[in-house]
Hints:
Elements: H1 7-17, E1 25-28, E2 43-46, H2 54-68, H3 78-86, H4 88-91, H5 102-109, H6 111-120, E3 128-129, H7 131-136, E4 145-148, E5 159-161, H8 164-177, E6 182-185, E7 193-200, E8 206-217, E9 225-230, H9 234-247, E10 251-259, E11 266-272, H10 279-284, H11 289-297, E12 306-307, E13 314-316, H12 318-328, E14 347-349, H13 358-370, H14 378-381
Parallel strand pairs: 1-2, 8-12, 13-14
Antiparallel strand pairs: 3-6, 4-5, 4-6, 7-8, 7-10, 8-9, 9-13, 10-11
Helix pairs in contact: 5-6
Amino acid sequence: MIDGHDRRALACIRSLGREDGYEIHVGSSRKINSTRYSKYCSQFFTYSDPEKNLDKFVEDLLAYLSDNKIDVLIPMGENMAFFINSNLDKLQGYVKILQPRGEIFNIGRDKEKTLGVAARIGIPIPQSYTYQQVAAQAESIRFPLLIKPRVSSASMGMAIVGDFQDFVFQYNKISLKYPDPVIQELIPSGGGHYQLNAVLDRDSNVVCTVVKNKLREFPIYGGPSTFFRTVNYPLIEQYGTKLLQEIGWVGPAEVEFMVDPVTNVPKLMEINPRMSATIALSCYVGVNFPKYITQFALGAKFVQTHKNDKFNYFCQWFIPGDFLNFIYNPNRFSQKYGYFGFFRKNLTHMTFDKNDLKPFFVNLYIMVSSFFSPEKILRYIKRK
C-alpha cells in the first residue's frame, strides 16, 4: 500500500489488518505519517517523492517490490493512482494492480471527457459552456458559474464567479496552471452532494457499491468531506455504475453528483479515479474495499455485487477537517449534526480508533505542527 501519509491509507490498512492472512507493507515519501504507526503495518518503507522525481520513485518502488515479493499494490490518492497507471507496463511484472489501462483511466480523470460520455448515455450533467459562449452571451447567461480544471483533486483550481468581469479574471488565472478548464452552471446548494463508491473487476463487473451524502466539508466553500453518511439512493447508484461500465472501468472509483434543488435531478460532477477519501465509512458498514481490490487483483471470479444496506451510518474526519470547518463555518451552531458527538450511535472516525491509538496522536502532532507553518494550510483558508 502506497501513499501511506494519505488518510484513506489508514482506513484501508485497518480494514485489511482485521482480516486474517494479510501482511501489509506501507510506503510513503514522508517518514512521519499516521499509517506507519498503525499496529496493522507489518513493514514501512520510504520512496522518493514522485511529485519531484517520478523516475526515481519508480526505481525505488521497483527495487522494493523485487526484494519483498509483494502480491498486490494499492495506490491511494489521485496523483499516485495516475503515477502508477502511467507505469503499469513496468510494474505489472512485479505486482498485481487493479486499474484500467491508460486510455480508460484518462477518460475517468479528465472531467470534460467524463461529462461527454455521460451526456451521450443519458446521465444528467450541468449546463456547460466554452469561453467563447460565455463571452458572446455574457448579458444573458445566468451567473454564478463554476470554473474547474479538467484534471485536479481536492477542489484545487476551482473558482465560483459571479459576473463576467470576475469570470475573465478567474478563467485566465486558472488557465495558467490548468489549461482549457471546464465551465459549468453552478448547481445551487440545498439538493445535496452525493458520491457513489465502487470497485469493478477486470471485466467491468460491479463488485461492490456504497452511496454517501456529504454533510460538511473543508474548505467550507467546496472541499473534501469532513462529515458524511451512508444513504439509500438507487438512482445515483444506477447512474454511477452505468457510467463506469460504459467507460470500461477497472478497480476503485468515486463518482460525484450534485442534486439540483429546483428539479430534484442528480447531476454528474466528476469521476475521481482512485480510492475514495471517505473509504473509512465503507469499511465501517462492512463493504471492505481494500479486501475486494486485493481479491480481484489476484484473479477472483465475479459472483454478485455487494451493495451496502446500512443507511444513516456516519463518519467524521475531525482532525483537522471537521475541526477547521467548525472554526471557519459561520453556521457552526446551526448544524443538524453537531461537531462534538464523538460517541454517537452508528458513527466512526477517519483517524481515531480506540484499538489503534498511535495513528490518531501522530495525526494530532502533524496538525499542531502545521500551525507553525501557515503556508501549509493557507490553501484551506483562502479561495484559490
